[in-house]
Amino acid sequence: MNHQIFEPQENLKEWVKCYWTLEIPKEKTPKKNTIVPDGCIKMIFHYGDKYKNYNDKGESEFVPRCLVVGQLTKPFLVEPTGKTATFFVCFHPNGYLPFATIPIKEMENKVISFEKLFGKKGLEIGQKILKANSTSERIDLIETFLFKKLANAKTIDEIVKSTVETILTANGQFSVNKLSEENNINRRQLTRKFSSTIGLSPKQLSKTIRIQNTLKTLLTEEVKSLTDLAYENEYFDQAHFIKDFKEFTGLTPKEFYGNDLKMSLIFDSKE
Length: 271
Description:
Elements: E1 2-6, E2 16-24, E3 33-35, E4 42-46, E5 51-54, E6 60-62, E7 66-69, E8 76-80, E9 84-91, E10 111-113, H1 114-131, H2 135-150, H3 158-169, H4 176-182, H5 187-198, H6 202-220, H7 226-232, H8 238-249, H9 253-257, H10 263-268
Antiparallel strand pairs: 1-2, 2-9, 3-8, 4-7, 4-9, 5-6, 5-8, 7-10
């Protein structure tokens, strides 16, 4: 498996978290992968073989080669059909807004083609990225595209930015009521601003970040007790921990612990 992470140029760092590439030969590609929600919208370009996506009924369909995945609130099951060769653009939780062409909330748990979102120009840039000869060429192409979009960028509310930073710093362990009081803003107003900018409520993003932090602990440290892990991440009790865990991964903590590494965690690895 060849997995690499690249930083965006300085003028895009406010919006773009990073770029990823993932290449896996057909014989080593896992049959299915569960992408766990991580609070980030992503642009994805499959320059290898196609991928399938499974819905809640277990039905599958091919996903476009050039697409955007909206905010996920549940596990997202995908299946490679051969060689994996994929280029990703990962936005910060509040980073996709300047590039949005439809309300972000309408993108929740959906895969949308680049052409549908960005029209003829989206189709053209997608084809160029698929045919590019290197990652550096793909990054140059997408950054040029993003900079053009920024010319008419929508501004991000400062309270929303501050709330995102607070959630990330606290690893999802924070009180929406306390934050709304500190910023002298009504909770409903804060939630409405947040949802239209990010596609999730503050509570949903907090749950997502907390479960991601818990997953990383499971996979990078020796965990002696799931109960201790639950309390360390400030879950009310183990039942609360298991409920949230299954909501986001489709598995119990014990089932997950015995499974292959999940894609969303591979992408966060700096190794």
